Amino acid sequence: MRFPSHRRILLIILVCLILFGYQLVQWLPLLNSDQTITNDETGTKTHKILVWHWPFGNSFNLDGDYCKDKFGVPNCIMMDNQSRLSEADIVIFHNRELIHGQQRLPVNLKRPEKQRWVWMTMESPENNGDLKPFNGYFNWTMTYHQDADIYSPYGFMVPKESETYEPLESFIPKDKFYLACWVVSSVSPHLERTTIYKKLKTVIPIKVFGRAVFKSLHDQALLHTMSRCYFYLAFENSVSRDYITEKLWRNAYMSGAVPVVFGPYREEYEAVAQTDSFIHVNDFDTVEELGKFLMTLAYEDRERYASYFNWRRKYTVEIKHWVELACKFCPKISSMPPHKVYEDLDAWP
Ligand SMILES: *[C@@H]1O[C@H](CO)[C@@H](O)[C@H](O)[C@H]1NC(C)=O
Ligand SMILES: *[C@@H]1O[C@H](CO)[C@@H](O)[C@H](O)[C@H]1NC(C)=O
């Protein structure tokens, strides 16, 4: 049987339409999900970070597009309104207020499946209190620890765009006056650093500044005073992995006093700071030897003293507030492992 030709053409068109429609229906959802994946890959998905409570109550005004306006990070909303918990992709909890009971985890509220809770601390494990009640709640850590999910060290050494060849003397602050300086809040006898200090001061003069002398550790006067010291004793209050604080980054490096460090192993310092930028207490068998070495450098071997400024030709030191680091972490959120829970916070990195 033969169809008249115009009917045949109609039939072909009909079959084509049906096939095309079928394809379209199949491809539509795929097109859609492709779109979402592309967004994630280029980091254009907007992430929301909720600061549950401000560390030490020091709040920031987050008005406007904070991360973009301040640090040039788009698609990242930083907020501190607890009522917006359900919107947040990540929620940051500062440890101190939790362990002191001033703030609580919102465990009674519904927690979105994909929301990550971040445990933040800048203290060493010794000063973090009892963490057992908080096991099993957090997905990420935000600490100075090199393995932290959100790495937030007290400072960074950053390569300069190009190396400079200025004479080393130009990096050494003028009018050095004190041999060794120390800024300390408490000379608690139980701290190991106190033992070292007591021995060292029998070998060399040490100028001690109580913390109260300066309005705060961010006081410009502190840097100015420390710049007059050949050496700064960057002794940490406890010795634990990667715990290297503003004593090194700010008080020593930023002032231009050569740091004498006491804290984690030399290798851990070297992982974040140039090898020849500091003197480690452990480099010496005895405190007497350390003291004699410092005196030699300051008063006899200027060239060797200057060699501790060599890194400044290639690097600068930067100190970044944790809020900035949180903003800058935003684009990385999409590429983080999908699932993680800290069942034992005491074993944190
Ligand atoms: C906090 O968020 C809630 C819900 O979005 C809103 O009603 C409230 O006005 C906000 N509070 C402040 C202080 O912005
Ligand atoms: C975050 O941790 C909680 C445990 O409190 C867990 O139920 C949830 O699946 C984790 N989420 C992710 C995305 O890892």
From TrEMBL:
Q: Which segment of the chain is annotated as a signal peptide? A: none
Task: Write down the InterPro entries for this protein, in alphabetical order.
Answer: Glyco_tran_10_C, Glyco_tran_10_N, Glyco_trans_10, GT10-like_C_sf
**Cellular location of this protein?**
Endoplasmic reticulum membrane; Golgi apparatus, Golgi stack membrane
Membrane topology, as annotated: Single-pass type II membrane protein
Q: Which GO terms describe its molecular function?
A: alpha-(1->3)-fucosyltransferase activity; peptide-O-fucosyltransferase activity
**Catalytic reaction annotation:** L-threonyl-[protein] + GDP-beta-L-fucose = 3-O-(alpha-L-fucosyl)-L-threonyl-[protein] + GDP + H(+); L-seryl-[protein] + GDP-beta-L-fucose = 3-O-(alpha-L-fucosyl)-L-seryl-[protein] + GDP + H(+)
Keywords of the record: Endoplasmic reticulum, Glycoprotein, Glycosyltransferase, Golgi apparatus, Membrane, Signal-anchor, Transferase, Transmembrane, Transmembrane helix
Q: Offer one Pfam family short name for this entry.
A: Glyco_transf_10
Fucosyltransferase N-terminal domain span: 45-155
Tell me where on the tree of life, at the top rank, the source sits: Eukaryota
SUPFAM superfamilies referenced in this protein's UniProt entry, alphabetically = UDP-Glycosyltransferase/glycogen phosphorylase
Q: What is the official name of this protein in its record?
A: Fucosyltransferase
Look up and give the organism this protein is from: Clupea harengus
Lineage of source species? Eukaryota, Metazoa, Chordata, Craniata, Vertebrata
* Gene, per the UniProt record: LOC105912358
